[in-house]
Design goal:
By secondary structure, the chain is α+β, with helices and mostly antiparallel strands. 27% of the residues lie in helices and 34% in strands. An eight-stranded mixed beta sheet has the order 6-7-5-4-3-2-1-8. A hairpin with a 2-residue loop joins strand 2 and strand 3. The structure holds coenzyme A (COA).
């Protein structure tokens, strides 16, 4: 993996960010259930969250900038009322200490196929960690499935640890894997990338 590239990251406000995510998800043909902007706004409104997008220039046209990778995270708490999040917390409770600690849930993310393997997702992950530590979070948790091999490999490289495995009754490829990374300030010294981070303005 190259660590000599410069990465361009934009942090979005909620409404604009939700539209940007909806737009980039159109390029992920492999996942039929895409999130709409409305779903994203519903989930993130009222809770601390971070919407990050990496952009790059087209190789054959350096004047055109395109979104290539994204990552969305939000806080989860012990007392979630939303049924999906309450269920998530129930599944995490044995593996994550919520009391007196702030937990960031890395909800959705990905890199467009043609742009994979260039460090964009690592760049977003490192920026997410920087933000999370600055905001006082203690741990980042993420959920994936056995069959999402690229994501599992990537989370491995990003030093996430498996904290829970939930076997699917009939199809082990569908089994859920929960992972986490504890946030220590010294983590930032191990970050590799060179980033330019911009706040999106309307
Ligand atoms: C997983 C995904 C986000 C990785 O994005 P990416 O921009 O290619 O990742 P990066 O280039 O930043 O790589 C980050 C690290 O993961 C490693 N990595 C990336 N793809 C990998 C793969 N397929 N297998 C193993 N490791 C991989 C890289 O080597 C790198 O490690 P390093 O920095 O230590 O060298 C991308 O492949 C993707 O969008 N896949 C589909 C998304 C998905 O599976 N979603 C399911 C829902 S969880």
């Amino acid at each position: 993996m190259t660590d000599r590239m410069d990465y361009f990251i934009t942090q979005y406000e909620l409404e604009q960010g939700a539209l940007e995510i909806q737009y980039i998800e159109e390029y992920f043909g492999e996942f039929p259930r895409k999130k709409t902007a409305a779903e994203i706004v519903d989930r993130l409104r009222g809770r601390p969250h971070l919407i990050l997008m990496a952009t790059a220039t087209l190789p054959h046209d350096p004047t055109t900038v395109v979104p290539v990778s994204f990552k969305v995270a939000h806080e989860i708490r012990d007392d979630e009322q939303d049924p999906k999040l309450a269920d998530l917390v129930t599944h995490l409770r044995d593996a994550v200490q919520f009391e007196g600690r702030r937990i960031l849930y890395s909800w959705i993310g990905g890199t467009r196929r043609d742009w994979r393997g260039q460090g964009h997702f690592r760049a977003l992950s490192e920026q997410q960690e920087f933000w999370a530590i600055e905001q006082g979070f203690d741990e980042i948790v993420v959920k994936t499935k056995n069959r999402f091999y690229e994501m599992r490999g990537t989370l491995d490289h990003l030093r996430f640890e498996v904290i829970r495995y939930e076997r699917h009754q009939t199809d082990n490829a569908e089994s859920k894997v929960y992972l986490s990374k504890r946030l220590m300030p010294e983590l930032l010294t191990r970050h590799r990338g060179r980033y330019t981070v911009t706040q999106a303005t309307l």
